[in-house]
User: Fold this.
Amino acid sequence: MIASDVSLKKFNTFGIDVSAKLFSQAENEDHVRNVIQSNEFKKNSTLILGGGSNLLFTKDFNGLVLKNHIQGIEILEETDDFVFVKVGGGVVWHDFVLHCIDKGWNGVENLSLIPGNVGASPMQNIGAYGVEIKEVFHELEAIHLKSGEIHYFRNEDCCFGYRDSVFKNKVKGEYLISRVIYKLSKKPNYNISYGAIEKQLENMGIKDLSAKSVSDAVIAIRQSKLPDPSKIGNSGSFFKNPIVTQSTFDSIKLKFPNVVAYPAGEDLMKLAAGWLIEQAGWKGKTYGNYGVHKNQALVLVNYGGASGKEIYDLSSRILDSIKEKFGVNLEREVNIY
Assistant:
């Protein structure tokens, strides 16, 4: 059940070649409980691993890696308008999105092709193209890693923020998210407010909207900008889009009239981190076998054989340069180990 000295290269989308002192892959809730009752768990630090798409290993993990591989998609309740679906935390996120589209369930099509697993979706409050998980999230089941009990978190319990939730701060490291329940619409409810989607639909010659057409447009946009992790190691967007006050934005706009930003609440603006990084000259820069992607400055890439520390150090240089040029503090979106 618990193996020793396991390579984590295939378990992280950066493809960083590090190893875990101890490793176990959980197929169900009982498996998790057996692991957390073991001496190996009690005597070592622990990392709960999902799809490995939102982390960067800078060294070997000197502890126990518990991979969430809990599967299953189950309808809990269905009305004329909505369906409540319970999904295993180890289900691949994009596979779930395609399943929803096939079943005629609407609400997650804008989140197509986001890497990672279902269990990470509420943890990160994943979002793309005008939609965030909190809009379709109903409830989750999480195993408390000290007691083995299942605790339930409703939408309000998760304290969702921008790429943030209670699982990234207040209760970080205390739970394994075993199953997530989504409330999906059976009626058309498409969000194409982001201009990129409308333009892509137009380019594809699509006039009759459907969840599949929106998903196809999102997939086409993402594939045009983002490298496939199976071909080039990456974790998608490495940095968060920074949120600044209106006055800070106004002062930046005086110096940089073309700055890209979006309203983010009262007296707040969200700056496009990719634009900032590109303006600072980083887009497409390569250093041996790693660098910044040529099509999307938000994405750091491992062309093969790079170390996590090299990529981390590159991200630090980018943070420093954005602070110097724009006076803005960028934050990493990925977790560093």
In short: The first helix runs from residue 29 to 36. The mean pLDDT is 94.
